[in-house]
Amino acid sequence: MPDTRAHPPGCHRRILRTTILLLALAALPCLAAAACGSTTRDRPAQGPPQVRAWTGVLIERSSGRVLWSKSPDRELPPASTTKIMTALLTLEHVKHLDEWAMVPQIPLPQTVGVDLVPGDRITVREALYALLLESANDAALTLAAHVAGSEPKFVVLMNRRARQLGMMHTHFANSRGTAEPGFYSTARDLATLARYALRRATFRQIVSTRDHVVRYPPAAAVPVHNHNRLLQEYAWADGVKTGSNDASGKVLVGSGKPGAVALIVVTMHQRTRPDEVEDAVKLFHWGTAEYLRHAAVRASPSGSATP
Description:
Layout: H1 11-35, E1 55-60, E2 66-70, H2 83-93, E3 100-102, E4 121-123, H3 124-134, H4 137-148, H5 151-164, H6 187-197, H7 201-207, E5 211-216, E6 220-225, H8 229-233, E7 237-245, E8 249-256, E9 263-270, H9 273-298
Antiparallel strand pairs: 1-2, 1-9, 3-4, 5-6, 7-8, 8-9
């Protein structure tokens, strides 16, 4: 049966005031959001993925803006990602890529190469394919000698160019990436180098090539395959270079456009290639979403949350 007992005087008024107060408090967050022009676009995005590499960086390729980093200035051996600088200097110094380069006196055998021996001739273009796809050390030594006369003289050019590009935490010791004392770079510096090299159409064309046959006289035809697993496995990937040795672990400089914006990912001292690819793909997709979120905020009418 309904409760017919009389309430004390003023009870109804107190209940009404309490109800109104509770409703007002519940509405405060919505009112504050409306007053600030807040929308779902301003809500914090999901945090970046956990990356197992010791260091790394994610940047927009066009602007160089850093979207994510992990100890980006930690100095570590760059391994064969060094060859990005070897290729860049070659392209800056050699006007005619079909000119011949003579293979110099080099330590033989090279553990990674295309079977060049001293006295062989190869075009600069073919040597660049060997350098950037197969990571051929004999091609690196050949290009260094062709550009500067010897590898030590070429290394002087490498370090000078690094300073010009603002790579303040990089010091090269050879053109190949072979580990030596005092040979180091950083994720941030490698991203800077890749971003600059990718401005060159020839460089972009070579590093986006999956397979090639390197030819040189008298009848050599050496199949080479790009070691960049991103390029081999994802249609949106377009370069750049991998590296690995005992001192460096796995190193990746990768470029691609999985969505609205081209990005560059660098990870250094990764444990395995599968870990490297998994982390890089996560960063590419997270970076794309982060870019779109910032673009939406910049386009909001208030502009109050523009980064």
